[in-house]
Amino acid sequence: MKKKSQTYLWFAIYFLMIFLPLILLMILPRPAGREFLREVSVALGFLTMALLGLQIIPTSRLKFFTKAFPMDTLYAFHHGLSILTFILAFIHPILLFINNPATLRLLNLIEAPWRARAAVVSVLAMLFLVVTSVWREVLKLKYDIWRWVHDFLAFLAVGLALYHMFKVNHYMALTYQKVIWLLLTGIWTAIILYLRLVRPIILLRKPYRIDRIVEERGQSWTIYLKPDGHQGMSFEAGQFAWITMESPFIFRENPFSFSSSSEVGDEIAFTIKELGDFTETVKEFKPGDTVYVDGPYGTFSMDDHADDELVLIAGGIGSAPVMAMLRTLADRNYQKRVTVFYGNPTWETVIYREELEELAKKLDINLVHVLEEPPEGWEGESGFLTAEILRRHLPEDYRRAAFFLCGPLEMINAVERALKAIDVPPGHVFPEKYEMA
Amino acid sequence: MRGGREMNKRDRIKRLFIIITVALCVGLAVLFGAIQAGLF
Questions:
Q1: Which residues of B touch A76 (CB under 8 A)?
Q2: What is the residue extent of each domain of chain A?
Q3: C-alpha pair distances (Å), A326 with each of A320, A357, A373, A435
Q4: Chain segment A51-85, per-residue pLDDT in tens
Q5: CATH 2.30.30.100 fits A208-297, yes or no
Q6: Does the ipTM exceed 0.95?
Q7: Domain A306-433 has CATH 3.40.50.80
Q8: What is the least distance, in Å, from the CA of A243 to any CA of chain B?
Q9: Which end of chain B has the smaller Cβ count within 10 Å, N or C?
């Protein structure tokens, strides 16, 4: 199936899963109606439930889903729709209170019936979910702790909301509503079982061993992995994987871009910069250690642009996927010109500095280093990557080139603006933003 | 360029998707309320 058709099919399924219960309720037999606000509230409750359960899908990393949508788009959907779900969940009781202020007594958790207690705790769990996700960094929550908290609160919110809905038992007394909600719950449960049980088992059966660890510049390390008792995986240069040193059942994995050539079948590599948490432990890894690799993921790939002029723009550790692309191009004996812009704080922190010089002998690379704090006597570009710097080094026909950008979010946003300023068609720009969760 | 469409599509889809979802949620909820309250 074509990618476009696949995208539309997923949208259709997604909307169907959200709206089908309510639409069926509108066209099939149902109990007599009540007050307007009360019924609007009930409808919002149904929609909240459907949206809440579906939130597991965008971040599930199911391959048939990640092939249709870029990962950062899926995360953006998840963020946006989760906030919408919370707002709907909040409006649901507010409308009931406006309709009949006497229902405010349901907020008294000591005397309220269990269905109301479940609803209140579910909405509170949603509130904590949103707060801990949106302000994770402000709250200084470590990523792996946040993930456990996120999972726990999500289970709590969904489970209690379902309990509330079945216990209220007004429209849910209808057999077709029971069937459809049990069906939806079944789908959500199946996805959770796959994520939490089946996928970890698959990963356990396909471990990798660390072959060697190479210290790079800029407090970074490259770990080279070999498949242990299996064929390994094929990936496209630019893609990434989630890796963990612990049991895949612990779910403490982190996403990293492949930095090795996609043409080398029996070895994969990841370059990891020390940025706290897991990344600080990389230097303690030893050859022979087991690593579990879940991937490949992502649509950041140059493989569909073999005929285009390539411009690769990297900032700091964003050079890892760009390096994978350059190594792959070298292995493929790529003959065309490649322009590389590479931004770093200092000359000493330029990851792959020496290897890039070696690659320049094999490939037709126009390598432009841009340093924030250049050393004395530096004759290259300095400061941040601007439209002027881009224009100075880009080939004349740059508007026809494919631009691949990878680096910190702020840098990518600034470069996208610079590219727009020099009239690069937005459709030729492919960003990989290094902030998703 | 496959991905070329993607980048344009990416921002457009994100915005459209959320707007359509919000509009449908509010629209259907109000419609359901109106039907059940006998406003039609």
A1: 14
A2: 3-203, 208-297, 306-433
A3: 10, 12, 26, 23
A4: 999 998 888 888 877 877 777 778 888 999 999 99
A5: no
A6: no
A7: yes
A8: 26
A9: C
